[in-house]
RNA methyltransferase (Rugamonas aquatica), 261 residues
Amino acid sequence: MKTITSRDNAQYKELVKLAGSSQARRKSGRTLLDGVHLCQAFLQLRGLPEQCVVSESALHNPEVMDIVGQLEAQHAHVLGLPDALYNAVSQVEHGVGVMFLIETPERAVTEPLAVSAVLLDNVQDPGNVGSILRSAAAAGITQVYCSAGSAFCWSPKVLRAAMGAHFVLEIFENVDLAALVAASKVTSLATSGYATQRLYDVDLRQPVAWLFGHEGQGVADDLLSMATHQVVIPHLGQVESLNVAACAAVCFFEQVRQNQT
């Protein structure tokens, strides 16, 4: 294990930059996974990180030491930091003191949609994006396509909200969703508060491309017009609409329900 004790260390400065800047993460093609759960999920599903970073106090934590032991047994890079330096990098308050530095996958769309997938049109809140990824993975959906205006999927907030879902999903970013829908081989469904067809009245027993839009404006008009179906989730009470992440979860698990009956 290598140890850094100076804030002026170039490697440490790079970690600080990656932790605090979306632009730096996008430019370098790397991001940070903060916390035991994300690190364990990455180890299990994706393999070794570029580097593991641990705080001095975390070396007394059995879960952290188990992770470090696995990495050192495979000659992976482990970096130790004093608590003060580690806490300046970590964005998790009262975290356990372990994070991974990983490369962020970049995928290009090369084939038409042929399986169930999630299409995010300008969904900007990282918590919403992460929750949608988590629900999609739980429902057995494996592909997610994001427009240029959507939150960066590999940001720390999205990663924490998704709870490891990234590592079982194929995530495509900066996608031309209109071109994707136009070439799609599957039914496309867009959610809209103005739709007249109920979600529950659509046959979901085949692959579906789910279109979800901006938290305030919804799916863009051009995409709405291209969708096979525009659907609404009926609800009771005085609230105007569902949160987009809640809406997505209802849609995914209605598809699961129909495929299990």
The chain has a mean pLDDT of 95.
